[in-house]
Amino acid sequence: MPPLRLATFNLENLDDRAADGFGDRLDLLRPQLRRLRADVLCLQEVNAREEARHGPRRLSALDRLLDGTGYEACHRVVSLNRKGKRFADHHNLVILSRLPILEQRQIWHDLVPAQRYRPVTGTARDMVVEWDRPLLLARLDLGAEQTLWVMNLHLRAPRAAYIAGDKEHGVWSSAGGWAEGFALAAMKAAGQALEARLAIDALFAAEPHALLAACGDLNADDHETPVRLLCADQEDTGNGHLAAQTLVPVDRALPPARRHSVIHAGRPVMLDHILVSRPLLGHYAAGELHNETLGDELLSPALVRGAPDSMHAPLVAEFLFP
C-alpha cells in the first residue's frame, strides 16, 4: 500500500461572494493544495453562499478552489448548521477523502450540553455558552479490514466573547467586561475539547486499538488546556493503564525552528495540529509543515490590502501501512 498522507489546513474565510480578490486567492491556494498531495484533507473556515433568499446554500468557493487540483473527485463530508439541515454561512468544516467513507457524523453538544451562565458584568441576566461550530467525524476504509477515524475540529480562538451591555461598536466599556468575555471564550474552547475527548473515549471503548487522528485548528499550543484535554497524557491522568488512549501531536517530531503554523505579532506559535492515537503513531513515517510563506496574522492585513494568503500553514502527516 502506498503512503497515506493526511493533512489539515485552515483556509481562513474561503468565500467567493465578493468577486474582488478571489482570483488572487485561487492563484495562491491551489498550488498549496497540490503540494499537500493529501489522501485525506481536513479543511476549516469554508463559507457557503445562498443562491437565492432562503434558498439552498452551496460551497461554490470550495468547488472553484478544488477545480483542477485533483481533489474535486474526492469523497466529501461537510458540517451543517445548528438545525442540521444545510451548510452554515461561515466556517464550515470539510473532510475530503480519496478513501471510501464508511460512516460520518457531526457532534455539537451531544455529549456536553450547552451551559447556562449568569454574567457578572454587562446587562444580560442569563446567557447560554455554546460552541461556535460542531466537530466532524468520519470513518474511512483503509482496506484489509482496517479503518481510520478522522475528526476535524476548529476550536474557539482566544478572543473575548460578546457580553451584552459591555461592548458597543467593537469597543469594550470596561476591563472587567473584556476579562469576562475572554474567560467565556476559554470556556468554549475547553468545553468543546472536552466533548471531543469524550467522543474519542467512546471510540476507544468500542475499538481499543483504533487508528484515530484528530486534526484541525485548535487555537492552542500543545501545553495549553484544549490540547491537553484532547491528548490526555498519562502524566496528567496519573494512570499508566490509560496510556494507550492518549493522543500524540505529530508536530513534536518536527525541528523546533520549523514548528509553527501561525505567526502572531512576531511570535511563531503552533496552533494547527494532527493528534494521533498510539496505534496510528506506530504507522507514522514523516511530517511536513508548509510555513515558508507565512505572514504575520496581525501585521499582514494592515500592510497588505486584501491579503490573499491564509495566515495558517498546512500540516501533513504521512503513514505507512503494510
TrEMBL record:
Species this protein is from: mine drainage metagenome
Endonuclease/exonuclease/phosphatase domain location: 7-280
InterPro entries: Endo/exonu/phosph_ase_sf, Endo/exonuclease/phosphatase
Keywords: Endonuclease, Exonuclease, Hydrolase, Nuclease
Pfam families (alphabetical): Exo_endo_phos (PF03372)
GO molecular function, one term: endonuclease activity
Name recorded for this polypeptide: Endonuclease/exonuclease/phosphatase family protein
TM annotation in the entry: none
